[in-house]
Amino acid sequence: MMKICVAGVAKGHDQEFSFETEVGELDIPKDVCEFDGKISVEGTVCTTGENYRAQGVIRCRKKFLCDRCLKPSAVEQIHEFSEDYCTVAERAERESVNYTDGSTIDITELVRDTLLAAQPLSNLCKPDCRGLCPVCGTDLNEGTCDCDTSTVDPRLAVLQQFKKQV
């Protein structure tokens, strides 16, 4: 757990924090995301009296199979976060902010949610990855093949045959 002791934070002053954690501590399933090594979290927390703000940066290395060519790849990721916490329970509920008792803030869930929300929909080894040939499976990043990859909508196949006759 990543708990920050905020009891001694003076109004208007920042308190720095840093954590290193394993993906297992964040309860992220391997089939959703897989990370290589430790996940580093650094940041500051400040107070205005009734409110606290935790902000910082998450650094990690994500492992994945490229969605196009299926090669194992990895990429360094840096994600920023900022979250407010309130010491008045009624106000926290009314304003939809997180509640804290004023002694500690647990940012474990914040880090987990930030990592999950920041993941791209597609994982590519490089932006211009050409992928695999759909016919023979050749990696098109390493060479070409002579396969006919043109596909015709079956509803229009009659028109293609008509075009060949003309």
Spell out the blueprint of helices and strands.
Layout: E1 3-5, E2 14-21, E3 34-35, E4 39-47, E5 51-65, E6 72-86, H1 89-94, E7 98-99, E8 104-106, H2 108-117, H3 157-165
Parallel strand pairs: 6-7
Antiparallel strand pairs: 1-8, 2-4, 3-5, 4-5, 5-6
Description:
The chain is an alpha+beta fold and about 170 residues long. It is about 15% helix and about 35% strand. The protein folds into two domains: about 5-125, no CATH class; about 130-165, no CATH class. The protein is built from three helices and eight strands; from the N terminus they run ββββββαββαα. Strands 2, 3, 4, 5, 6 and 7 form a six-stranded mixed sheet that branches. Strands 1-8 form a two-stranded antiparallel sheet. Strand 5 and strand 6 form a beta hairpin. It starts with a strand and ends with a helix. The model has no long low-confidence stretch (mean pLDDT about 90).
Assess the beta-strand content as a share of residues: 25-35%
Alpha-beta content class: alpha+beta
Question: Shape, please?
Answer: elongated
Secondary-structure element series:
EEEEEEHEEHH
Summarize the model shown:
With 166 residues, the chain is α+β, with helices and mostly antiparallel strands. It has helices at 89-94, 108-117, 157-165; strands spanning 3-5, 14-21, 34-35, 39-47, 51-65, 72-86, 98-99, 104-106.
